[in-house]
Design a protein that fits this description.
The chain has about 70 residues and is an alpha+beta fold. The chain contains 3 helices and 3 strands; from the N terminus they run E-H-H-E-E-H.
Length: about 70
């Protein structure tokens, strides 16, 4: 029996990984920063694209960045 690596992340898993709330995750899913699939009403992100975005976010020009008032 072979074990397959999981290739899609659920909204809950992205929330656990990033510490972001559900609304911010959905905002991120709609930002176009990485590959997202919709199955019925359920959204899932391609794991490799999500982690690439997460760890290489500063290299993209159109990065999804949270702006915090008072920080430069």
């Amino acid at each position: 029996m072979t074990t397959r690596k999981k290739e899609l992340l659920t909204v809950k898993e992205m929330m656990d990984i990033t510490g972001l709330g559900k609304n911010k995750i959905y905002e991120l899913l709609h930002s176009g920063e990485f590959t997202v699939y919709k199955f019925g009403s359920k959204f899932m992100a391609l794991e490799k694209d999500f982690y690439e975005w997460l760890y290489c976010n500063n290299k993209k020009k159109n990065s999804y960045v949270f702006k915090v008032k008072g920080l430069k």
